[in-house]
Amino acid sequence: MTTPNKTGWMARTAAIALFFVVGLYPCLAQDSRVTGSFFLQNPNASVPDPEVGLSVYLFDTKGQVWSKPVFTDSLGRFSLANISPGDYYLRVLGQDGAVAWEQKLVIKAGVQRLQPITLKRP
Amino acid sequence: MFILSLVLCLACGLGFAAIAAWLMSRRGNTIRDILASDRQPEALRIEVADKLKISTNVPTVALYVIAAIVAIALPAYLAWLDRPLPQSKTVLLGGIDGYLGLVGPGEKIYAYPPEMAVRGDGNFSFPLRNGDKQQSVLFESPKTYPVTLTIIIKPDKKQLEVSTDPFWRKTYLIPIQDTFAKLPAPIEISPVPSAHEQQAQNTPTPLPPVTAEMASLPPISGGDQ
User: How many CB pairs under 8 A join A and B?
Assistant: First the structure.
């Protein structure tokens, strides 16, 4: 038979365990995803054109290393998966190899969507 | 190694040409004598101290042909043997995890460059260019996040290193067997949540200011671009 004191102890233990599991989950979840999209200004239309084939790189400030490139698709989207939370720099190169975009990026746990970016038509 | 072979071939060719020139300068063997004669050109005859006598019916003129073959054709043949391997020799086999659950009826996930194609069951066989150090394949569809597969052919052309992880913490080292390399696990592609997509503005987004830190970043290594 369970005494009231014992029940209270178990409930407190369960509550503490639940607090840790829920509270620590975002810290334990190592993999993050950063998504975004690039467009090219179109003066002859109301909406910009998707920018296809840009090379998107991340620079990890902790490891001091550049990532391999990922490429924007036919909708101008890119996705960087399995990224550890931390401070990064995002650098995007055009098909001519010139830097098209560069910004600092603080990546947190979970999925992070960047605002769509419209590049100026040269 | 090829340069050494080329030098040796040229030296031998010049040697043959010199012998031919020396023999043809002798009386009866000159080009004028050969043209004026009704008979076959004089055969090559070598005598050493009246003891060793070697003669052959091969005309002396043939020595020039041999010289040309040794000096030009042989190095050309060696260069042909040493040529780069033909393109598209290695084929990467693999598949997409849960493909049919990712695409609706009549839809598919596309691969880029165009010579890459994903079959209706999600499997693929990508022809790789052996001349390229690093190649990328982009998987895309409106309902999934784009995934870039990066492939590196090892210099010995016996292994591929493959990853979808931008920082290459998780990579596959795949042996090439009979020009085929098979991915040990299917490619993982995630569906895009059906949340409302943000609309892009048709005015240029202001460029973020370039900080001193950004300006001092090391260059992206050339092979990775």
Answer: 122
Q: Is residue B88 predicted with pLDDT exceeding 90? A: no
At A25 the pLDDT is 45
Q: What is the pLDDT of residues A44-71, one digit of tens each?
A: 999 999 999 999 999 999 999 999 999 9
Cβ distance of B202 and A118 shorter than 8 Å:
yes
pTM: 0.66
For residue B182, is it within any domain?
yes
CA distance A103 to chain B (A): 6
For A115, name the nearest residue in chain B, comparing CA atoms only.
Answer: B198
Testing the interface with A: which of B197, B205, B210, B221 to mutate, by most A Cβ within 10 A? B205
Same domain, A79 and A90: yes
Give the CATH number of the domain where residue A94 resides: 2.60.40.10
Per residue in B159-172, pLDDT (tens digit) is: 999 999 999 988 99
Shared-domain flag, residues A52 and A107: yes
Mean pLDDT of chain B: 82
Give A120's contacts in chain B (Cβ within 8 Å). Answer: 204
Burial of A36 (0-12, 13-18, 19+ CB in 10 A): buried
Minimum CA–CA partner of B221 in chain A: A66
- Is the pLDDT confidence value at B60 over 70? no
Pair A112, A62 in one domain: yes
Supply angle C-alpha B10, B15, B18, rounded to 5.
Answer: 125
B132's tokens: 């390229």
Name the minimum distance, in Å, from the CA of B205 to any CA of chain A: 5
Q: What is the ipTM of this complex?
A: 0.75
Amino acid at A36: G
Cα gap A40→B133, rounded to integer Å = 31
Question: What is the distance between the terminal CA atoms of chain A, rounded to a whole angstrom?
Answer: 79
Is there a single domain that holds both residue A69 and residue A40? Answer: yes
Q: Answer yes or no: do A116 and B201 touch at CB < 8 A.
A: yes
- Do residues A13 and A37 share a domain? no
Domain end call among B52, B81, B110: B81
Which residues constitute the domain of residue B114? 90-190
- In chain A, how many domains are there? 2
- Is the pLDDT at A24 greater than 50, yes or no? no
A30 to chain B nearest CA, in Å? 13
Burial (CB count within 10 angstroms: exposed 0-12, middle 13-18, buried 19+), residue B165: middle
Q: Are residues B32 and B76 in the same domain?
A: yes
Place of tokens 């990026």: A105
